[in-house]
Design goal:
12 strands, five-stranded parallel β-sheet, single chain, seven-stranded parallel β-sheet, Rossmann fold, 333 residues, alpha/beta
């Protein structure tokens, strides 16, 4: 072997040893990062690939961008040390095997403002009866505008707003609603005392205190079905908004509360039933939630603002660069 060829092989071997192997199962994430972050990844010595979890073992991958991870995927990615979810929700991860292997979990909150903005929009739409007025006017019905019993709406001003889940999104909801002169109440969490909020020990007490109750917690074993019959009794004549996950609410209890007229209004971006590749048209609930004129629905699109995907993918790429450099500060969950 000549010396020039030996030097080339030596340099490749040195670079190979210094590489940080990462992959994503998402075509769009791969396309964005390879188009916009190639220079930064090369500088950080990150070897980035599009990985299909059904095509053999990816033994070199140390970091994986995915919203789904379970015990079976450990066999496909046996040496993964970090999983980055390119959005907020972590309910697609089986965290038990991940914790046993010491796999670190990261997510992106770059689109949190847009999710919080959707919570505000839903709140204003339900209180302001916007969909009700719109649907009536499309039929020429002016909602008794000139009559003594005309249909009025409710302002958000000076209301008591409960935010169940006072994390990044919850705090942003507070910031966006603050100009309305609201009071904010939150559930006590690990004895934290956030500034400028009322803290309650029990969720039912928080519900009774509130005029508007916003769900912004992630779906966990603890929060699954937490808004149940007992909570709906506490939410009588309140407005309920959900930008967390559908399963946080007991579906049957929600329907009964709407049917009885106990719940003043409901707005949600997250649901109980979703379309699939085979079923494109799917109602969001097994119950006719859409039949109530005090309900406002959006199709789990709060994070799909015009520029949100670019922000999320860029955030994920920046996290990966930091992780490859050994910097995990402030991002590990």
């Amino acid at each position: 072997m000549n010396h020039a060829k030996a030097r080339v092989m030596e340099s490749v071997t040195e670079r190979e040893m210094d590489m940080y192997y990462a992959a994503t199962i998402y075509d769009k994430v791969y396309k964005y990062i390879t188009t916009n972050k190639e220079r930064e990844f090369n500088k950080a010595n990150i070897e980035f690939r599009l990985a299909d979890k059904d095509l053999g073992v990816h033994s070199k991958v140390q970091a994986l961008i995915t919203g789904e991870f379970n015990k079976a995927m450990l066999e496909v990615f046996p040496n993964v040390r970090a999983v980055i979810v390119p959005y907020t929700g972590l309910n697609g991860l089986d965290t038990a095997p991940m914790q046993s292997k010491g796999i670190m979990i990261f997510n992106s909150t770059a689109h949190s403002h847009f999710v919080a903005e959707r919570a505000l929009a839903l709140t204003l739409a339900v209180l302001g009866k916007l969909v009700f007025y719109n649907n009536n006017l499309m039929k020429g019905d002016w909602s008794k505008r000139t009559e003594p019993d005309r249909v009025s709406w409710t302002s958000l001003s000076n209301k008591r707003v409960a935010i169940y889940g006072y994390g990044i999104i919850g705090k942003e909801i507070h910031r966006l609603m603050k100009p309305f002169g609201i009071e904010v109440g939150v559930l006590d969490y690990r004895n934290r005392r956030p500034h400028d909020v009322h803290v309650f020990k029990r969720l039912e007490e928080l519900a009774v205190w509130s005029d508007v109750f916003v769900i912004a917690v992630p779906l966990t074993d603890e929060t699954n079905g937490r808004i149940d019959e007992t909570m709906f009794a506490a939410l009588k004549k309140k407005v309920l908004i959900n930008i967390g996950r559908g399963q946080i609410i007991d579906e049957d209890a929600l329907y009964e509360s709407l049917k009885s007229g106990d719940l003043k209004g409901f707005g949600s971006d997250v649901w109980f039933q979703y379309p699939s590749k085979d079923r494109k048209i799917v109602m969001p609930s097994k119950h006719p939630i859409e039949s109530f004129d005090n309900v406002v629905m959006t199709p789990h699109c709060a994070g799909f603002e015009d520029h949100s995907l670019e922000l999320r993918y860029s955030d994920v790429a920046d996290q990966l660069i930091r992780i490859a450099g050994g910097d995990f500060r402030g991002r590990k969950l």
